[in-house]
Amino acid sequence: MSQAEKAKEFAALHKKGEPVVIYNIWDAGTAQAVAKAGAKAVATGSASVAAAHGYSDGEQIPLSLVEIIASRIAESVDLPFSLDFEGG
Question: Any idea of the CA torsion for 44, 69, 54, 25, to the nearest 10 degrees?
């Protein structure tokens, strides 16, 4: 599924009166686990991504590493994916 298709699917999940449940993941492995469990979308929190890679929250993790992590997550699952990256 292309990124454009994932974006359309993510937008379609947002329906008035029907909350979207988005599971917090921090790497490709957790993304795959929640996808396998039936999630319709995944998202990162900046604190969980930072902590999983040995950094504290608050823009301590290098942006170049966040880019690698985000790319690996996006490539690992065929689900819409939202990234919370500090200061972004």
Answer: 30
Cα–chain center distance at 20: 14
Q: What pLDDT is recorded for position 20? A: 84
CB atoms within 10 A of CB 39: 18
Contact in structure between 35 and 4 (CB atoms under 8 Å): no
What's the rounded Cα separation, in Å, for the pair 38 and 45? 20
Question: What is the Rg, in whole angstroms, of the alpha carbon atoms belonging to the chain?
Answer: 13
* pTM score: 0.81
Interatomic CA distance for residues 48 and 30, integer angstroms: 11
